[in-house]
Design brief:
about 350 residues; alpha/beta; Udp-n-acetylmuramoylalanyl-d-glutamate--2,6- Diaminopimelate Ligase, Chain: A, domain 1; UDP N-Acetylglucosamine Acyltransferase, domain 1; twelve-stranded mixed β-sheet; ten-stranded parallel β-sheet; about 15% helix; about 30% strand; acyltransferase; Hexapep_transf_CS; lipid metabolism
Length: about 350
């Protein structure tokens, strides 16, 4: 699919400088731009590439001034980075604009659909499933009984959604995600055996949530495991039963959150963080990568380490950690001097 500079400028509410009929059919980084590609420039560090790029169209900030001859057509906008992001979203919508019901698949007679749905081949929709408008379900997706899915949801190939799960509007769920598998509930018995504790709750995913590939969110023992509005989850995250993630919190890959922990709003949690169960994490908390959290955290704290301590205290302590061999050597020398009189 091809777009002209004039068409792109209209979408972005920008101004064309150069050839309004210049056409593009692909996207590229500015240093790798070729004829027929669209790129952008927002970081002054990359200004020099504007004069060597072969990209047909480049999006730049409205206050950008050209200092040398260029071959690329410019589209000037208020914020080039945001404009390019908007264009990527638009491009993705066009690219993923599928509709209709493919065969073969299984659809329960009691399942309900909204308008303009796409259902990929080899999908399974159980009893009493309810799906909203403009939903895209890619091939090999399993949706269990009594699942409810809102409007404008995209579910990529291979997702497994267990029974009773509820998903809000405008969510994106990437391949390999499992929603609603049993929580890790076992009761120790005499003789070293374990008794399975039935997990009869569900998972609730509110509006505008993104869930990365291969992330798993367990159903509650009782009640709900809840992912609040606007949460962004990276790939390979484990969220245990009865956890609650507050609004607009973002969590990076390979983080594990144990059962019944409550995480507040607008938190930022780095990769490979481990959070113990039955804790309360406040709002606006920042946790650095590979930290271990074993206590309740107040609003606004920044943490690092395992077990995690104050971010500032960790950085001060780290100076001593890395100099420990030198410090021990100095102590040994002092001890020898004292012992030798």
């Amino acid at each position: 699919m091809k777009f002209t500079a004039a068409q792109i400028a209209e979408i972005l509410e920008g101004e064309v400088e150069g050839n309004p009929e210049a056409e593009v059919s692909e996207l590229a980084k500015i240093e790798e731009g070729t004829k027929g590609s669209l790129t952008f420039l927002s970081n002054p560090k990359y200004n020099s590439f504007l004069y060597t790029t072969n990209a047909s169209i480049t999006i730049v900030n409205s206050d950008f001034e050209v200092e040398q001859p260029i071959t690329t057509t410019l589209i000037k906008v208020k914020d080039a980075y945001k404009a390019f992001s908007t264009l990527l979203t638009y491009y993705n919508q066009v690219k993923l604009n599928k509709s209709g019901i493919e065969e073969p698949n299984y659809i329960s007679e009691s399942a309900e659909f909204g308008k303009e749905i796409y259902l990929g081949a080899f999908s399974y929709l159980g009893n009493q499933v309810k799906i909203g408008d403009h939903v895209k379900i890619y091939p090999n997706v399993y949706i269990g009984d009594n699942v409810k899915i809102g409007n404008n949801v995209t579910i990529f190939a291979g997702v497994k959604i267990y029974s009773e799960t509820i998903i809000g509007d405008n969510c994106t769920i990437h391949s390999g995600v499992v929603l609603g598998a049993d929580g890790f509930g076992f009761s120790p018995e005499e003789g070293g055996q374990y008794l399975k504790v039935p997990q009869i709750g569900n998972v609730v995913v509110e509006n505008n949530v993104d869930i990365g590939a291969a992330t798993t969110i367990d159903r509650a023992t009782l009640g709900s495991t809840i992912i609040r509005e606007g949460v962004k989850l990276d790939n390979h995250i484990q969220i245990a039963h009865n956890v609650e993630i507050g609004k607009h919190t973002a969590i990076a890959a390979q983080t594990g959150i144990a059962g019944s922990t409550k995480i507040g709003e607008n938190c930022l949690i780095g990769g490979q963080v481990g959070i113990a169960g039955h804790l309360t994490i406040g709002n606006r908390v920042k946790i650095q990568a590979q930290s271990g959290i074993g206590r309740n955290i107040k609003d606004g704290e920044m943490l690092q380490g395992s077990p995690a301590i104050s971010y500032g205290a960790y950085n001060k302590s780290y100076i001593h950690f890395k100099n420990l061999p030198k410090t021990l050597n100095r102590l040994d020398q002092l001890e020898k001097k004292i012992n030798n009189g």
